[in-house]
Amino acid sequence: MTFALAIEQLLNGVQLGVMLFLMAAGLTLIFGVMGLINLAHGSLYMVGAFACASVAAWTGSFWLGVIASLAAAAAAGAIIEITVIRRLYDRDHLDQVLATFALILIFSEGTRWLFGSFPLYLDIPAALQGAMELPGGAQYPVYRLAIIVTGALVALGLYLLISKTRLGMRIRAGESDREMIAALGVDIRTLYTLVFALGAALAGLAGAMVGALQSVQVGMGEPVLILAFVVIIIGGIGSIKGALIGALLVGVVDTMGRFLLPQVFALVVPPAQAGLIGGSLASMLIYILMAIILAVKPRGLFPAQA
Amino acid sequence: MKRETIINLVLAALLLAVPFIAQAMGQTFTITLATRIAILALAATGLNIALGLGGLVSFGHAAFFGVGGYVAGILSAHAFSGEPMVLGFEGTRQMLIVWLVAITAAGLLGLLIGVISLRTSGVYFIMITLAFAQMVYYFAISWPAYGGEDGLSIAVRNQFPGVNSMRPLNFFLICYGVLIVGLVLSALIKASRFGAALQAVRQNEVRVASIGISPMPIRLTAFVISAMLTAVAGALFADLNRFVSPSMLSWHMSGELIVLIILGGTGRLMGPVAGAALYVILEYLLGGLTERWQFFLGLILLGTVLFARGGVIGLLAGKVRHG
To answer: What is the CATH number of the domain that holds A151?
Structure first.
């Protein structure tokens, strides 16, 4: 194990964490403000990836693709909020789970209908191709660094939006007392649609960025969705700060676990078995982490006041 | 007799009659469909004890369903190869023993998951049960000894004393029998003191605690019983397909089990049976019409959740009467 390799893996972990943050921020915001659990968030991620891949293939520009992914995911989010989600705010969580589960089926089959079963591919834009030299001599892809930077900027932007702007003030007010802000004359229905579209756009952005690293295909949103759930459970549902810290924790623990555990076991047992045990344990590591954190703090690391 | 009771009896009789008619007409495939209905109904009946009676929305019951399936698969694989398992136990091809092991394994797993998950409630509980089921799923995929991602085939269906289980009608009758036992058990639980306490905990936890009943042990017991019943269904499902794979553990499976209950009608004894029947029939009919049947299934499900809360039994039997 060289130092350079460890740094590279650590950065991969941070990059995964940043991507999870984009998903988790939307989920946690939607839960915090509207009290809604949205399983279809992974579908919005998929919508973003498909929009980016097809617009990029059509126009030849990755950047137009990213803009399209934001627009498509936000539009898809706004449409399902107005047609379906709006009816679920007063229902119990079971109904929300089922209705959004139904949305996943509709989105997945609908996408397969439109785009076929074959995965689409998205190239990394020319400006972000190649690798950069890191201190310590390792080479690291520029594109992955760009994802980390984008995530950091989004986190900063969200912080400013929520703590400094009028919209953010309304979102915070909606979190603490929705009847009261409606009584004060704020159009709560539009606010909800806006928050939902914002969360959707973040998921779409994550989908577009990851689309260039993996193939773009139906069902790509589901593993990420479940990881994002783990993130917001660890961070505390409703807390953006919790989502950021939880996402980085999950990203780094997952990546480093897969990297380190087989090597740790190799010190005790023969290499073939070490890979097996280490690999299996690594795939469960974040769930074990979640269980431990919940055993100590049942409402997550940064429980939102509710 | 109440209208719901009549509907329940008719449903049970129909499910029993269809395979015999199919047998007479030589339509073996219909028997397989009916067997699928019985098994899925049993799994959903198990989940319904936690979800319907206890209000515990477990989004991770696929873990127990899959564990049941893997117990059946692993025991039969060892019985075939003759190799002993860990701790020197032999494999077996006897269904009764398979069920017992499945119940024990799922009970232990349910206890472990329950103890941690039940510390939380509401949306946390939904997501944590989901996450634990994913953990089991990824474990099954990454552990290559029993097929890993490819799954494990069962060469010959496990045996039931005195019955040739390879004949479709016989296997259906075994599944149907277990389903009836499961339903009776579920009805007995609902009517018992324990069931009353469980429903009271669902309705108002604080009041139950204030009269001196601690909610946690009641919920945990219900969760474990629910896991055990679902595991038996999993073992039967593996025997039906003679194949078990990580897809039995996937979160789609957990979602489907909840869907069965809701389609049938929440909190109804026969809700899972009606739901499973509707689901399997829809899957078969829509699947015959279009490759995109899941799209329409999604629309139907969405419509049920938004506009028809009572499900099939609710439509047929009217609202739940209290008293």
So the answer is: 1.10.3470
Give the domain range for residue B231.
29-250
Contact B22/B216 with Cβ under 8 angstroms?
no
CA B112 to chain centre: 19
> What pLDDT digit, counting tens, does each position of B250-264 carry?
998 999 999 999 888
Give, to the nearest 10 degrees, the angle between helix B62-81 and helix B215-241.
50
Question: Does any domain span residue B213?
Answer: yes
Does A274 reach chain B within 8 Å, measured CB to CB? no
Matching residue, tokens 């789970």: A97
Of A99, A101, A294, Cβ closest to residue B128:
A294
Give the CA distances from residue B130 to residues B61, B62, B123, B272, B322, in Å, rounded to whole numbers and listed in that order: 8, 9, 11, 21, 32
Task: Using a pLDDT cut of 70, give the percent of chain A over it.
Answer: 98
Instruction: Determine contact, residues A91/B266, Cβ cutoff 8 Å.
Output: no
Q: Using CA of residue A216, residue A221, residue A226, residue A228, what is the dihedral sign?
A: positive
pTM of the model: 0.88
Domain count, chain A: 1
Average pLDDT estimate for B226-255: 94
Task: Please report how many Cα atoms fall inside a 13 Å half-sphere around the Cα of residue B280, on the Cβ side.
Answer: 19
Q: Return the residue in A283, A299, A302 with the most chain B beta carbons within 10 A, the one to mutate for interface testing.
A: A283
- Classify residue B132 by its DSSP letter: H
Instruction: Please indicate, yes or no, if residue B89 is contained in any of the structural domains.
Output: yes
Whether the CB-CB separation of B14 and B323 falls below 8 Å is answered with no
ipTM for the assembly: 0.85
Contact B28, B166 (CB under 8 A): no
- Would you state the structure tokens that stand for residue A207, as one six-digit string? 């989908």
Residue whose pair of structure tokens reads 């996408």 in the numeric block: A111
Conformation bin of residue B87: beta by default, left when phi > 0, alpha when psi is -120 to 50: left
Least confident of A29-38, B29-38, B174-183, B237-246: A29-38
Exposed / middle / buried, residue A282 (Cβ in 10 Å: 0-12, 13-18, 19+): buried
Task: Compare CB distances from A233 to B124, B255, B262 and report the shortest one's residue.
Answer: B124
Look at residue A305 in the predicted model and tell me its pLDDT.
57
| Residue numbers in A near B264 (CB within 8 A) | none
Let me know if residue B132 belongs to a domain.
yes
Give the pair of three-digit tokens for residue B293: 């049947």
Q: How far is CA B309 from CA A126, B196, B302, in A?
A: 53, 23, 11
Domain count, chain B: 1
CB A262, CB A278: distance < 8 Å: yes
| Contact of B260 with A96, CB cutoff 8 Å | no
Per-residue pLDDT of B174-188, as tens digits, reads 999 999 999 999 999
Coil, helix or strand at residue A215? coil
If one counts every other C-beta atom within 10 angstroms of the C-beta of residue B184, the result is 11
∠ CA A281-A284-A288, nearest 5°, is 105
Name the 3-class secondary structure at A303: coil
